[in-house]
Please model this.
Amino acid sequence: MRIALFATCIVDAMYPNTARATVSILERLGHEVIFPAGQACCGQMHVNSGYFKEALPVVANHVKAFEAEEYDAAVAPSGSCVASVKHQHPMVARRCGDAGLEARADAVGHKTYELSQLLVDVLGVTDAAAQLGSYFPHRITYHPSCHGMRLLRLGDRQLDLLRTVRGIEVAELPEAEQCCGFGGTFSMKNADVSSAMLADKTANICGTGADLCSGGDASCLMHIGGGLSRQGSGVTTMHFAEILASTFENPAAVTGDVRLTTGRTAR
Amino acid sequence: MSGTFLGMPSLPVFGIGNLHEHEPFPKAAHRELGNTQLRANLGHATRTIRDKRLAVVSELPDWEELREAGRAIKESVMARLPELLVQFEANFTARGGVIHWARDAGEANAIVASLIRGQGADEVVKVKSMATQEIGLNEYLEAEGIAAFETDLAELIVQLDHDKPSHILVPAIHKNRSQVRDIFLREMEGVDPDLTNEPARLAAAARAHLRRKFLSAKVAVSGANFALADSGTLAVVESEGNGRMCLTLPETLITVMGVEKLLPAWEDLEVFMQLLPRSSTGERMNPYTSLWTGVTPDDGPQNVHLVLLDNGRSAALADEMGRSALHCIRCSACMNVCPVYERTGGHAYGSTYPGPIGAILSPLLTGITAEENSSLPYASSLCGACYDACPVKINIPDILVHLRGEDVDSKRGKNRRKMALPSQMDLGMKAASWALSSGKNLGLVEKALPLGRLAAGPDKKITRLPGIAAGWTQSRDIPAPPGQSFRQWWDKEHQAPAAPADATDSGRAATAEPGTEEKP
Model:
C-alpha cells in the first residue's frame, strides 16, 4: 500500500520520533510511506476553542495537502487529530458555508485512519513481536485517550498491540478511562480543574509501579508527562508507535524524566 | 398571562432567574476546588452512583436502541412543539385543568403567587422541581409573604441550611450525614436534641417534620417530568413518596413545567420510564410514579393548574446546533460521569443546571452574552463521557464547541453592542492560524525550535511560561523541543539525489521480516 503520513503538528514539531517510528513500522510491513509536504495541522485547537473563522484556512490546507497526493490510506499517530479530520473538518466547512470544502473534507476524512486502526483493521497486525519484531523490556501502563476511545471507538486496539510486544509487562491503570485533564486550551483556561484531574491521573500511573505510561496521543502524553516531570516522579511517557518500532537491535531509549527527544531514534 | 400564546416570539425571549453564572467559571471552580470536604463527598457520591448506573444499564441488551428511541421521540417533539402544545392544552382543559402560559420567570412567578393568594393560603408544600428552582419561585414567594416548604429530603436539607442545590438529582450531594445532622439540630423545629447521624434517624426526623406540613397545606406546587399530549396527563417520577403526598393531599395543585417536557403519547412513556430511572438513580424502576389528568371529582386536588414555561426555551429551540439540549430529561447522568463536575461540584456553575448539561443549557436559555455564562462552555475538557452517558444522546461536546464559537464571535464585534480588544487568546489563535495553514509556514516556525532548546536549558525542560500559558506551567513542565522537526528530518532523508528506486511498489507483501526495512 501507499500510505500518506499525517504527522500532526505536535508530533512534527515536538515528538518527531513518534512520526519516525510510524514510518518505520509501516515500512517494516512492506508499505510505501509518503509525507504530503503541504500538511501542517488538523485545526482542532482552533475549533475546540471556538475560533471557527481561524480554523477554516487550517482545515482547507489539510484537505488540499491530502488531495494533492495519490495514496491508498492516510494515517496519523493520534486519535484526536484523526477524529478532528473525520468529524470536525466537514463541520467547520459547513459552518463557514463552504459546501465544496465540506464534500472534499469528507472524502479525505474517509481515507484517514488512526495508526492502530490501520494496523489492526486494514493491515492485519495482531502480533507485534512476530509481525514487527517489537521488543521493549519495560513495565508500562497505558492511558486510553478520550477522543480515540469515544470518538473513534478504538477500543483496546492500541493496548492489544502493546501486549504482544516481546519483553513488555503491561500494568493495568486504575480509572484508565478518566480524562487526563488536557483538553487543549482547557488546560490553560481552566488550569486549576485541569491540574486536579491530572493529579489523579498521575497518582494512578505512579501507583502501578510502571516505568512509563504509553498512549496514542502525543498531546495527552505531553500533558501527563509534564505533570510526572514536575512531580519529580521519574516516570515518563512514550507513544505506542515508538514501543512498536522498538526492536532488540534498535531499542527505544527510556529516560527517567521528561522525554529527551534527542535520544536514540527507534529506527 | 393566560390564554393561548403560540409560535415563536419575534425576538428571542431569553430566560431569566437562577440561570446565571455570576463570576467566571475558572474563578468559581478555584474556590470550590479548595473545599476538601466537598471534593471528598462528591468523589464518593458520584463514584457510587456512576457504578450503579453502569450496572443497571449494562443489563439491558437494547440500551442503545432505547437511547436512540429517546432521542428520536424528543427530536420529533421539538419539531412539532406548537402543535403538541395545543393538543395538550385542549385535553388538559377538557379534563378540568387550567393552563397558564408564561413567557419568562417573572410571569411564571406572578401567576403562581396569584393562584396561591386566590386560595387564601400563605404557605405551600413543594415537590422537588427544577423548573421552580430555575425561576426562583421560593425566593419570590418569600418576598410575597408566602412560605414554601420543600418536601424532598435533600431539597429540605438544602433549604433548611439556606444553601443552594448543587446537583439536579441529589441536591445535597455536597453534604455528608454529619453535616445533615448539624443542620437539622440547628434549623428544625422540635427536633430530638439527641439526633445522631444514622440515615434512618435522620429520615425519621425529616418525616415527622414534613408530616405536619402535608396535613395542613392547602396548596402544593410541583414540577413535571413528562406531559402527554394525547391525553393531557402530567407525570412526576420520584423516590420518596413525599411528592405523592403533595400531589394528592392539598386541595389545589399548581404545576410549573417547561414546554419541552411534552411527549406525544402514552406509549412514549415506555421508553422514558426505562431510560430515566436507570440513568438517574441507577435503579431499574423508581419507587413512585404519579400520573394525573385534570380533576377527578372528589378525589385528590380539585383545583389543578399548569403553568407552561418558556423562559428561553424558544430561543434555544431557534438554535439549530443547540436545540437538542432541550431533549434533556434531567436525569443527571452527565454530571455523575463528568471529571470537571466531580471536582468542582455544582455551585461552580452558578445556574440551577450544573455539570455538562448546565454548561450548554444555561447559555442557550439566557443567550451566550448574559452575565458570565460565556465562561460555561469552556468548563469541559471535551472528553465526551457525558455524551456516552446521556440517555437521549445529546451531543454535549459538539454543542459546547458550537457555543464557544458563539462566544468568540460575539466578542469579535459581530455583535456590535460591545467591541472588545482582542485578547491574548485571540492574538495567539490568529498567529497559530497563519502558522498552521501551510506546510511552508509551519516549517519556518520549526526553524525556531533550537531557541526553545535554549530556553529549556541544561535540564531540558521548560518550567515557567508567561501570560495565558502560565496556566500550563502551574503544574506541568514542557520538554525541550527536538533538535530538528520530523519535517526537517524527512526532507533531509528524501532530498538525496538517489531518490527511492521503487516508488510504485504499492503491492508489496505486508510480511517483510522485522528489522529489514530499507534505508530510503
